[in-house]
Structures are given as structure tokens and as C-alpha cells.
Amino acid sequence: MKTIFKPRLSAANVSPRLLELATSGNLDAQAALGEIYFNDGRKENYAASYHWNGQAARQGDAASQARLAAIDHKGIGVEPDQQEALRWLRSARARVITAPAR
Questions:
Q1: Distance CA 94, CA 45 (A)
Q2: Between 62 and which of 8, 11, 36, 95 could a Cys-Cys bridge form, CB atoms 3.0 to 4.6 Å apart?
Q3: Closest Cα partner for 14 from 3, 76, 1, 34?
Q4: Which of these, 74, 69, 73, 76, lies nearest to 54 by C-alpha position?
């Protein structure tokens, strides 16, 4: 049986093109980088996780807003801020509830 393997993006192999797109304001690229750095779990990537999730969250990406809520709640690379965590969580929930069905 043939197994199809799709390598998972990691902070170690982020493409320059993805960084370029994210830097130019592309929401999908920003959200992808936010997820990659968030899931990486290494301290040296906390700032990048916070930055890219913040960029995408401010553009309305619900998943990035939820990741920011987790970052603020747990204090991942930042001081814990329960009020900010709740604000992002409420924003993410509102986006999911009002999102059109696909």
C-alpha cells in the first residue's frame, strides 16, 4: 500500500515566499505563520508566534484570535493577561458564530 506523506511545515523550514506574503499583509500567510510558530513550542519562536497571530487576528482570522487568547491566558512568551485573553476569545467566538456556512 502506498502511503502519501505531506510534510508538516515547521518553524525550521518556513519558506521565504510565505514570509514575503505575510509581510505584505496576506491574511492567509500571516495566519499560517502564526500557527506554525505557535505549534513549534520553542521559546525562541514565542515572539514570532505572537506577532503573526496578532497580525492575522487584527484582520479578523478567528483561529489566530483563539491562539492569541491561549497565548495571553497561559502567558506564552508574554505576561499572562486574562482580560486580553477573554477579549480575543470573545472575538473568535463571534467570528465563528456569524461565519457563513460553507
A1: 28
A2: 95
A3: 34
A4: 69
Which residue carries 495566519 as its cell? Answer: 31
Helix, strand or coil, per DSSP, at residue 80: coil
| Residues in the chain, pLDDT under 70 | 1-9, 99-102
Compute the distance between CA of residue 75 and CA of residue 98 in angstroms, rounded to an integer.
29
Question: Could you tell me how far CA 24 lies from the centroid of its own chain?
Answer: 16
State how far Cα 97 lies from the chain centre.
Answer: 19
CA geometry: angle at 89 spanning 86 and 95, to 5°? 140
Q: What is the pLDDT of residue 1?
A: 47
Record the pTM. Answer: 0.85
Place of cell 503573526: 52
DSSP 75: T
Unique residue bearing C-alpha cell 502567558: 75
